[in-house]
Amino acid sequence: MQEKNRGLAVFTFLVFLFLLGPLVIISLTSFEPSTVLRFPPKGFSLRWYENILDVEMFLETFKTSIFVSVIGNLLALALGIPAAYALSRYQFKGKGFFNAVFLSPVLIPGIVLGFAMLKYVIVIYDLPIYAGLLVGHTVVMLPFIIRVIASSLANFDFAIEEAAYSLGSGKLATFFKVVLPNIRSGIIAAILIAFLESFNNVDISVFMTGPGVSTLPIQMLTYVENNFDPTIAALSVVLMIITAVLMFLIERLLGLSYFTKR
Amino acid sequence: MKKRYVYMLLLPGMLFLLLFMIVPILLTIGSTFFQQGSFTLAGYLHFLTDSYFLKILWTTLRVSLVTTLVCILIGFPAAYYLSKLGPRKKGILLALAIFPLLTSSVVRSFSWMVILGKKGLINTLLVAIGLTDEPLDILYTPTAMMIGLVHLFLPLIIITLVGVMENIDPDLLKAAESLGASRFTAFRKVILPLSVPGLIIGSILVFVGSLTAYTTPALLGGKQRVISTFLYQNAMTLNDWYYASVVATIMIAITFIVIGVMNKLAMKLNPKG
């Protein structure tokens, strides 16, 4: 029995080595002093971290990525909070249908959605690429915003809201003064989760590039096609640090159970 | 009055999705059945008789299937081990599994380019211990795609299964053992059947995810195409939007068929009915 558990422990260790090893290796190669991407690195240097700042496109696309993720997030919140509230507060005809539609963007293959948006949103609706990018990322974020906020509303006792009504508070005032503050941590977590989804998105953004417009992940893909130096490794480390910080915050706000629930 | 108020709350989001997702998708699908204004299935006939496309489709299905099986075979024991740990250790390991899941797919695929390349870690090791004289071609093959996809989706199946296994009452296992079942039999008769819903959900996520993944095959597959990179190539490199739309429709159809079939299977296999 003990034997078997030890075997399983070793196996699990190897699984985690497989999961995390590549990320450790890429982090170490970022300190390579020469132009060769190799493991283990032959020395220690921060020149590739400096090089990130020297490649102007990285900075430009980083700004675009942040802008699109933040503004798209606000748009998705404006559209998603009322929907999440309606879906968790009321029973009404067609509720299942609306729920399914709001969560459907995760079911449609991203690359298909990206292409369809290029074809219609950019070409037929004639929106500028930047606007198309923003709209696309909003669609991507919406289901995450709705799912996380709806699940924190599910834990909210709506009797509190009724109490506020009976004390003469209006519907809108009650929502902003009573409901929203009570689900604050859920909303912040939703913002962070949606941000990560948008910031890392490739499938939509890869179709929405044009003169002077591109996001950081797409710029990284383009860079890798033409250069094989440790710059991307250094950039990866920066992105992993950002990811770790956001993940830590999400864990504080929701707990890890958010990720294990399906 | 109250009813109308509820729909007002849903309206902005619905309109947004209708305009920017539903209409573009439906029109993309619809456009594949018309050429020069008349109804046709020519696009589909073209693909179903095109050996190049059929080969891509076959590669995609094969890579996705192997990825899913490997994820289950590796993920299941690891998830079982995690579910038995105390809350502190389990929390740490779960966090370590979730971290790669949240990390950019570009970063994760790129890390495998560094490992699998001609001068990568694997080839350096193989040459050093003398298993091979010439570095092997691992990068830019279906095998590389598969490794990258397993790395991409393994956390998903682990955390899904941990979520399901946590909810299995440990007393059930004890009861089975006290009734004379060996540890293995108890595992097979209790844990395995009760994990089926998690296995099915996990498999859907991994299989559909692998079928439609773009970044990993684009970086690790080289010239080797799968349907998602083929769609991109048609749309952006060849500028053939008609065929790109046909490929998009085929992808949607496959996705929905897979989800539908797996859900049916889930209902049949679920011991709770």
Automatic annotation (TrEMBL), chain A:
Domain ABC transmembrane type-1: 62-250
Localization annotation: Cell inner membrane; Cell membrane
Pfam families hit by this protein: BPD_transp_1 (PF00528)
Any one Gene Ontology BP term: transmembrane transport
Keywords: Cell inner membrane, Cell membrane, Membrane, Transmembrane, Transmembrane helix, Transport
GO cellular component: plasma membrane
Coiled-coil stretches noted in the UniProt entry, renumbered to this chain: none
Domain of life: Bacteria
Keyword Membrane: yes
Listed InterPro entries: MetI-like, MetI-like_sf
Primary localization class, coarse: membrane
Transmembrane regions listed in the UniProt entry: 62-85, 97-123, 129-154, 232-254
Membrane topology, record value: Multi-pass membrane protein
Family: Belongs to the binding-protein-dependent transport system permease family.
Protein name: Spermidine/putrescine transport system permease protein
Origin species: Brevibacillus fulvus
Automatic annotation (TrEMBL), chain B:
GO CC aspect terms: plasma membrane
SUPFAM superfamilies: MetI-like (SSF161098)
Keyword Transmembrane helix tagged: yes
PROSITE patterns per UniProt: ABC_TM1
InterPro entries: MetI-like, MetI-like_sf
Subcellular location: Cell membrane
Membrane topology note: Multi-pass membrane protein
Record-level GO BP terms: transmembrane transport
UniProt superkingdom: Bacteria
Family designation: Belongs to the binding-protein-dependent transport system permease family. CysTW subfamily.
Record protein name field: Spermidine/putrescine transport system permease protein
UniProt organism field: Brevibacillus fulvus
